[in-house]
Every structure is written in C-alpha cells, then in structure tokens.
Amino acid sequence: MARYGILTSGGDCPGLNAVIRGAVLEGNAVHGQEFVGFLGGYRGLVYNEVKLLTRSAVRGISGRGGTILGTSRVGPYVEPDGGPDAIKAVLEELEVEGVVAIGGDGTMAAANRLMEDGVPMVGVPKTIDNDLEATDYTFGFSTAVEIATEAADRLRTTGDSHMRCMVLEVMGRHAGWIAMYAGIAAGAHTILIPEAPESLEQICEWVVSVKDRRRAPLVIVAEGFTLPEMADAFSDRGLDEFNRPRLGGIGDILAPLIEERTGITTRATTLGHIQRGGVPTAFDRVLGTRFGQAISDVLADGDWGKMVALRGTEIVRVPFSDAVGHTKNVPLGFYNGARALFG
Ligand code: F6P
Hints:
There is one protein chain. This protein is α/β, with parallel strands linked by helices. The protein folds into 2 domains: 3-128 and 280-323, Rossmann fold (3-Layer(aba) Sandwich); 141-276, Phosphofructokinase domain (Rossmann fold, 3-Layer(aba) Sandwich), CATH 3.40.50. Helix content is 39%, strand content 16%. It is built from 11 helices and 11 strands. β10 (306-311) and β11 (314-319) form a beta hairpin. It is elongated and about 70 Å long. The chain starts with a strand and ends with a helix. Residues 11, 127-129, 171-173, 223, 240, 246-247, 276 line the site of 6-O-phosphono-beta-D-fructofuranose (F6P). 6-O-phosphono-beta-D-fructofuranose (F6P) is lined by residues 11, 127-129, 171-173, 223, 240, 246-247, 276.
C-alpha cells in the first residue's frame, strides 16, 4: 500500500481538517493509499514527528476549526537540522513516497524548493485572505467573511444606539477581500482596502454624510489599508517568523483622526484572530473536502509539483510555479462598484 505524508503549515485556517479527512478517505477508499500526518508543519517533517492518519483518526473532523496536525511557520530548511537530505532520510525511514503540503504562499514556495531538491511534493492552497492568484477561492475565506459580517452587524446596533461612528478592522494582509465581502454584506458606509488608498478628507466626507442622514456610520478597514501619506501598511508589532511585518492597528489610528475631524464620537474594534477560529462554514468544509479528495488523485497519478485549485466550479491542477509569488488583489472595478454606494 502506497504511503504518503500530509502537513499543515503557516497560519491556521478553518477547513484544514476537511482537507485532511477528504484526502485520507479518498485515498483509502479509491486508491488504496495510507497516510501519516507530520506534526507542527514542516517541523514534523524535519524532526520525524508523525501520527498515523487512519479512517477513524479523521472521523467527524471536517466541522472542526484549526488543524488536528498543528501548524507552525518553521521552514523545511531550518538550520541546522533541515534540508532535503535530512527530509529524504525521514521519508525513507517512514516509507513515505511523497508529501502533501497544505498552506499559503510561503508553504508553497518551500514545497517548490523541496521539489527542485528532489523531494516529491504536492500542494493544497489555504488562507483566509483569499489572495492566491492561482485559485478562485481558498477555504477559510468564507468563514472569515461570515465572522467579520456578524461582527459588523453587531457593531451597527451599538453604533446606532449611541449615534457613533464604528470602525471595524479586519485581516487580509495586503489584499482587501475580507473587508470587501464583509463590508458589502453588512452594508458598510465605507470600505477601506490596501488596493485603493483613500484620503482622510474623503473618508470623513462619507462619515459626515451618513451622520447627516441621522445614521451611525460604519467603516470597515482592512489591516493593510494605507492613507495616501503612509509609505507602508501600519505595523508596530514586529516581524513574523517569515520576517514579514505583523499588520494590525490601522483602525486605532483612523478612529481618533475621524473623531477629531468630524466631531463624531468614534470607536475602533480590531477583530484579529477571531476570524481564523471556530467552525468552518459549509462552503469551506465542501471546498476543503474536494481539495483533499483531488490531492489524493494527484498522488495516485504521481503528478508531483502540482497544487490543486478552484477554477469556476472545477478543481484543477496547477504547477507550483504558477501558485507562488502571485498575489490576487481586489480588482479596482469591483472596489469602485462598491465605492459608488459609500457615504
Ligand atoms: O494570512 C492569514 C493571516 O491571518 C493574515 O490575515 C494576518 O495578517 C496574519 O495571518 C496574522 O498572522 P499571525 O497568526 O502570525 O498573527
């Protein structure tokens, strides 16, 4: 029986467990495959920390948030123990023929490098940010949008009661997908995204026009949004494990500026990791399950170096090179369509 490894790497994301379950069930039932899970992302692959993924180990997990394997941002080339030779030795010892890496851009870049160094790898894309160019949607995004929309709805009732301007900051790194979807769904009066800097004057104009209609303004801001005078997205939390600035805090910058300029009492809420926690939506469970099943088929074909992706309603295979380093931004036409209704 052919045996394969699965790992989840990078930030966690609702739907990861559905992928693991989908791969194990399809692999067992259709292809006669067996799976082990590497614990804590690439760290488990380097340090040979595994658990057997039987049918019963994945029973009922698709509705659970997080990942049963744990995750980390440790890369496979971690010094001094990582690198292709160490990893090949682990795979040989476990009689594992290849590895499924479930992750975002950094995970896929590492998988691609391992492939080039002779380690058989395939990939499944994940991120709540929905910013991978190679796929129409990533699982996790739908759940994050639902949570952000509910938060916005809740802010609206307290904002209405006090006639305050409420600012909700959502995640997304340098893409505004979560802000756009949650903002449109919640009927926000202003949506601010990294792809479309807006001046403070313009933002305040929208806020005041809402107040003039005797409504409480609701502003949704993506963490990567910049005012025109800002060179980079706001960050005062240091770097993450990939040496990228940790974003977050622009809502707290904006709220006092809006209050000062408009005289309207303004409060900011940063939603943070709540967007990544808890049960996945049905959409994310279905997409995760389909990705999991599809990656088992990729393994059966020995189609190494491929990542599964959603195009329209179809699951397709794309080379790692197509998947890495291409950020999918919110198209300006989409933003401008929503912007026509701001204020
Ligand atoms: O990429 C997913 C994401 O949740 C981003 O939206 C956010 O900027 C980042 O990860 C937060 O990372 P961490 O979990 O390391 O704080």
